[in-house]
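hey so u asked for the seq, here:
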Amino acid sequence: MKREINLSPEQVKAILTEAKNHSLRDYLLIKTMTIGDFRVGEVVGSAARRWIKSDRTWTPAEPNLPGLQIQDLRDDGIWVQGKGWKKDKNPAPPVLVPLSKSLILELRNYVGTRKSGRIFEISESRVEQMTRFYAKRAGVIDWKLVHPHRFRHFTTTQIARKHGVLAGRDIARHKNISTTNRYIAELPEEEKRTIIAAQADLIAV
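ran it, structure tokens below
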């Protein structure tokens, strides 16, 4: 079975702090990816997964995902093209993902005078390297296991624990709750013990 790491709030904060001290772009990218519960490809775009042959030459198809676009920023969130938007049948429509006003302001200040195009001009593979780099600097022991999707798992877990699995499903934009259940991290042993102890106290006679 593949080893994974479940990031704690303290670890995510430490990673964001390291990124903020190093690069505004990196900080805003990880912050946006985490708060918006985005897939990394939704944020930075993803490369074409096939090539098209025409006139004896091969050219890459359009990117699988376009990434977050400057022109799609709104006062209350951002329009995003998610997984499945290029399907021939029943393509997934773009959705407006709510973001805090403070994050919207930070993103607008970051893009400056640019009017269109991707907010973050960086590749998926570079984001993979970046997250491990900051995890290592933040003192995460298993930093090699930190990759962009772990931030999505973190956010979905936190939302599901505080607001319920249905809220986690909707924020993560999953079609099936079974997918959401796979994202939710198991409770730490200490937290389990605290809950069980509280239950014991509840029925003590």
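DSSP finds nine helices and five strands in the chain. The CA atoms of residues 68 and 133 lie 23 Å apart.
lmk if thats what u needed
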